[in-house]
Amino acid sequence: MLPARSSRVPDIAFKWVAAFAAGMIVVLIVLVGWELYWGSRLSLRQFGFGFLWSSEWDPVQDKYGALPFIFGTLVSSLLALLLAVPLGVATALFLTELAPARLRQPIVMAIEMLAAVPSVIFGLWGIFVLIPWLRDHLFVWLKHYLGFLPLFQGPIYGVSMLAAGIIIAIMILPIVTSISREILRSVPNLQREAAYALGATRWEVLRIAVLSYARRGLFGAAVLGLGRALGETMAVTMVIGNRPQIAASLFAPGYTLASVIANEFAEATTDLYLNSLFELGLVLLAVTILVNIAAQVMLKSMTGTGPIRVT
Amino acid sequence: MPHKKSKWIVLIGALAALAAASAPAQMLINGAGATFPQQIYTKWFDEYQKVDPSVRFNYQGIGSGGGQKQILAETVDFGASDGPMSDDNLAKAPRALWHIPTVAGAVAVSYNLEGNPQLNLDGPALAQIFLGTITKWNDPAIAALNDGVKLPAEDIVVVHRSDGSGTSFIFTDYLSSVSPAWKQKVGKGVSVSWPVGLGGKGNAGVAGQVKQTPGAIGYVELAYAHQNMLPFANMKNAAGKFITPSVDSVTAALASANIPDDFRFSMVNAPGEGAYPIAGTTWLLVYAEQKDHAKGEKLVQFLKWAYSDGEKFAAGLDYAPLPEALQKRALEKVASIKY
């Protein structure tokens, strides 16, 4: 038998180490927020809340506004989610429910490999392969058949909001797929068997027993994907066209918060300019936090018996 | 456990030996700033190593803004910038901070047109293209400059740099000097609010986008236009001649530019007969009085070498060396640095 006294020490030590680690995360976020606030105090004082809805970004006149960048960040991320979530969930469904066992491992590996490709590689691939193809084929097709929608009007350059959405979608596909797969795998078999027992077809089993049971968890997977999408920088910068404007058309170039910071930080010389770039960082942090809070609220209001909470 | 202990002793011994081996320390001189001249500076530091092995240079191309900040904060021994520092920023320096020009470069206007015709352009037409008031390639303003070239009725797609850069500074400085409308609406800077067009990241981004997009026009450093086999326009200079961007035509522009004693000058639209109009120089930022005697001495020695021997490496890397008269003036300035 172990002596009673000595066994308590590692216990207590571990508790404190774990608490310290958890506490550090909170401290880190607060520090990041504080640092961004402190770095942007000049522009906060100069522009106030007007910074959020001004569309002007003119380093020569020293006038700055964040609206086109907020718009670009949200739209490109949402586009990415629209494309990646159905694809990711469908892939996960195929892997957990339908695929023959010997196919699973190769597909899972391929998805994990996709996650390991560096951002800049996606960007280069975007410029040299994806963009020309989009410009000459997909966009032309979309314009021809869906051109009556404002979303698909205007000149086609290739680099565009839609191209950015597609690139981000490819980049968040691995995380959405692997989390969805874990979620679906954790759906108890009892659920499926019960549905089969009621005479459900395979599709009905998936829909009623699996998907609806796992709804909350799948939503969580989408939120994690969204978190990734909001901050994606390098590849987006290379394909979005970097134009601070708010356009209805998805063919038009746009700009994101992360991209403009990456683009302009190195050469920013005036104080107000630098402060405004810091403020964009603050806005990006705020947007990310707000989106996550909104997701939590939606998650709470969702009915469903699923046991899984990812976020 | 004696075995484990002996392992430790060996390890510590090895570390001590390593420390001893690197003990005859090389002096390290740190610099940071502009990315445009990074290639030539790296070449210089490499070559200078052979001249004086006792000193090593470490240069980080973090951008002109960063270079200005770091030299103001004195976290580096010299800074580098593609644009002259503003009076505001210069006033923040703890003591006299000097601009010393090193090399110059041309900004080439590249385009993507069927059949790669050789185009001639002038300042007002270029400004109107980038302002978005000329939108078609067969616009009369372009056609008038290009007798005999068949221009398509294609839309012009403007491409500019999305990242802040000295290249954009030179280009917008030029447009401001030839077009009052541009000066009033946009102005000059490392980043500006572009009236039209797409942003590409870096020279590579702009070159790539011009190459990929039919009807595109953009501006890149001359070296990139060469490397990417992009056609580039001959520009009409202040003397009314159409000039091809090249090392020689930039040095000609430098020779005819009006250069004040503090070396903060703009050389766009220089008056010389053979001067290419869209060109700019890049500067080192050094304190007139060096804090550290030994480092200051080595830095001055290096700069003297750079102006006497280093400049000849420039042309091979598509940089324009300073004309002789200017080299002499720069050398005099360097010689008067106190340490």
Could you walk me through the main structural features you see in this protein, from its secondary elements to its overall organization?
The complex is a heterodimer of chains A (311) and B (339). Chain A is mostly helical and 311 residues long. Chain A has one domain: MetI-like (MetI-like fold, Orthogonal Bundle). Chain A is 74% helix and 1% strand. The longest helix of chain A has 36 residues, at 4-39. Chain A is globular and about 70 Å long. In chain B, a hairpin with a 5-residue loop joins β9 and β10 (242-243). The mean pLDDT of chain B is 89. Chain B is α/β, with parallel strands linked by helices and 339 residues long. In chain B, 40% of the residues lie in helices and 19% in strands. Chain B starts with a helix and ends with a helix. In chain B, the strands form two sheets. In chain B, strands 1, 2, 3, 4, 6, 7, 8, 11 and 12 form a nine-stranded mixed β-sheet that branches. Chain A binds chain B through residues 56-61, 127-128, 131-132, 135, 155, 157-159, 237-238, 241-244, 253, 255, 259, 262-270, 274, and chain B through 62-66, 68-69, 83, 85-86, 88-89, 155, 157, 162-166, 186-194, 197-201, 205, 208-209, 212-213.
What layout of secondary structure does this protein have?
The complex is a heterodimer of chains A (311) and B (339).
Chain A: H1 4-39, H2 41-47, H3 50-53, E1 57-58, E2 63-64, H4 67-98, H5 101-116, H6 119-146, H7 161-185, H8 189-197, H9 202-211, H10 215-231, H11 234-239, H12 257-264, H13 271-301
Antiparallel strand pairs in A: 1-2
Chain B: H1 2-21, E1 27-33, H2 38-51, E2 55-60, H3 64-72, E3 78-81, H4 87-91, E4 97-111, E5 120-121, H5 123-131, H6 140-143, E6 157-161, H7 166-178, H8 180-185, E7 198-200, H9 202-212, E8 216-221, H10 222-227, E9 234-236, E10 242-243, H11 247-256, E11 279-287, H12 293-308, E12 320-321, H13 324-335
Parallel strand pairs in B: 1-2, 1-3, 5-9, 6-7, 6-8
Antiparallel strand pairs in B: 3-11, 4-8, 4-11, 4-12, 9-10
